[in-house]
Design brief:
The complex is a heterodimer of chains A (112) and B (114).
Chain A (H helix, E strand, L loop, with lengths): L3 E4 L2 E5 L4 E7 L6 E7 L6 E7 L4 E4 L2 E6 L4 E6 L8 E7 L8 E2 L3 E6 L1
Parallel strand pairs in A: 2-11
Antiparallel strand pairs in A: 1-3, 3-8, 4-5, 4-9, 6-7, 7-8, 9-10, 9-11
Chain B lengths: L4 E3 L2 E4 L5 E6 L6 E7 L5 E8 L14 E5 L5 E5 L8 E8 L8 E2 L3 E5 L1
Parallel strand pairs in B: 2-10
Antiparallel strand pairs in B: 1-3, 3-7, 4-5, 4-8, 6-7, 8-9, 8-10
The chains are: A mainly beta (112), B mainly beta (114).
Chain lengths: 112, 114
């Protein structure tokens, strides 16, 4: 079955700098890759997703890139702000199967 | 409602007791998922319902865990004879082909077994 590896497990950056979180997946049939942000005591919230027919997607300060050949995808957050501090999870699935397999999460801390 | 609703939000139970956790998916969402998240860990798939198809139960950790769904609405996750290792957040999510199959999560039910 699918296996998703995420790194780093923790990341600390200065406010205003960029943060990058990387994930690799094992199943070449996976074609949907969402990213979730989870704040303390809350459920995960979708922040951006990408499907395998595109290589990059942007939404304001957030972007995701996908390299299908290498089977890895990354989350990029620019101009980081204190409210970006949270745990971020990547996931992968085969569209038809729908079951998301999650990475282990990255705790991002933005230092003022 | 506007989002996935879960109840109770917090539950403390004694070891050996049974618990039921409820999930109300987003209206119209045909797919419903249960995930477990232990403290400081990632999300662990438990079970997936899609319409009237047989559920995918491949993630249920033992026969003490079961889940039901009434049509395309409410789901109940039942844990029998709870153990301390069952302490976790149980997250429900739903999706629909009309929403591009994007999966939306509820706030979770925090279960503590003492």
């Amino acid at each position: 079955g699918e296996n998703v590896e995420q790194h780093p497990s923790t990341l600390s950056v200065q406010e205003g700098d960029s943060a990058v979180i990387k994930c690799t997946y094992s199943d070449s049939a996976s074609n949907y890759f969402p990213w979730y942000k989870q704040e303390l005591g809350k459920g995960p919230q979708l922040i951006i997703d990408i499907r395998s027919n595109v290589g990059e997607k942007k939404d304001q300060r957030i972007a995701v890139t996908l390299n299908k050949t290498a089977k890895h995808f990354s989350l990029h957050i620019t101009e980081t702000q204190p409210e970006d501090s949270a745990v971020y999870f990547c996931a992968a699935s085969k569209q038809g199967a729908q079951k998301l397999v999650f990475g282990q999460g990255t705790r991002l801390t933005i230092n003022p | 409602g506007a989002g996935v609703s879960q109840s109770p939000s917090n539950k403390v139970t004694e070891k050996g007791k049974d618990v039921e956790l409820r999930c109300d998916p987003i209206s119209g969402h045909t797919a419903l998922y249960w995930y477990r998240q232990r403290l400081g860990q990632g999300l662990e798939f438990l079970i997936y319902f899609q319409g009237n198809s047989a559920p995918d139960k491949s993630g249920l950790p033992s026969d003490r865990f079961s889940a039901e769904r009434t049509g395309e609405s409410v789901s109940t996750l039942t844990i029998q004879r709870t153990q301390q290792e069952d302490s976790a957040v149980y997250l429900c999510a739903s999706s629909s082909t009309n929403s591009g199959n994007t999966i939306y999560f509820g706030e979770g039910s925090w279960l503590t077994v003492v």
